[in-house]
Prior knowledge:
40% helix; alpha/beta; 5-stranded parallel β-sheet; binds S-adenosylmethionine; single chain; 282 residues; Methyltransferase, Cobalt-precorrin-4 Transmethylase, Domain 2; Cobalt-precorrin-4 Transmethylase, domain 1; 3 domains
Amino acid sequence: MHLGDRGARLSGTLHVVSVPIGNAEDITLRALRVLRTAHLVAAEDTRSTAALLAHHGISARLVALHDHNEREQAEQMVARLQRGEEIALVSEAGTPLVNDPGFRLVRACIDAGLAVDVVPGACAAIAALVGAGLPVDRWLYAGFFPREAGARARLADELGGLRATLVFYESPQRLAGTLDWLAATWPARELCVARNLTKQHEQWLRGRPADLRRELGDEDRGEVVLLVGPPAEAPLVQDADALAQELLARGLDPRTARDALAEATGLSRRDAYRKVLDLLGR
Ligand code: SAM
């Protein structure tokens, strides 16, 4: 059995293999072949990988590779590959490296001149993106939604004006608070919450932040991808003064009012801030 095109190389190949995100059938024929024939499977979570392999009748030698041991493991894996072993890298779910371990190992292999073979497949971010109904021509994956106020403010700064769909992973327990933040900061954006993709209780919520917050209620379970549509092409609100007054009357702090004002009127954040501070007499 040949794994990839090894030609006359003596070294082995690192195979980066995607696995399902909820439905055990979402794995490719090539992924199963690679997992069956690899000398070693480096797994983020050996228990869940063992269960997946058992489901497909595969027995493999598993080694744990996670955030806490990746540096040391990468060195050992490189040595194994240099001896000619074939290694498959898998995550607990979806595609390795996408908010999962593997970057250091892939980088170490590239630096050592070793072959890296990608076996594509399920990835929650991509699955959510293609089903969300938001523009897909330009999109940006930004990892887990930031938790701290400062990091959220930086997010609004860096990505607020970007004409692209933003894709985030989010914890179900933090989703309600994040929707509140979005309702205050980007009230007019189209959102999609994709929950439990490919699982029995898959759910898609679509709408503006405040609507989704209402629809969500106190549900705080499952796995969630949160997508934020791009800002509107044309300003939604013409009367910036009236809106600024309204935002301050709602009790928003000056920076949050600035972001919401800039978003709705198309003003630069600097001009929006000036207007807010003027109204506050500062
Ligand atoms: N590597 C994975 C991938 O390719 O999607 C992502 C790993 S990341 C640590 C785990 C996060 O992915 C979850 O917290 C959730 O935000 C998202 N996720 C994973 N599976 C999902 C699913 N079935 N439905 C919705 N979101 C999912």
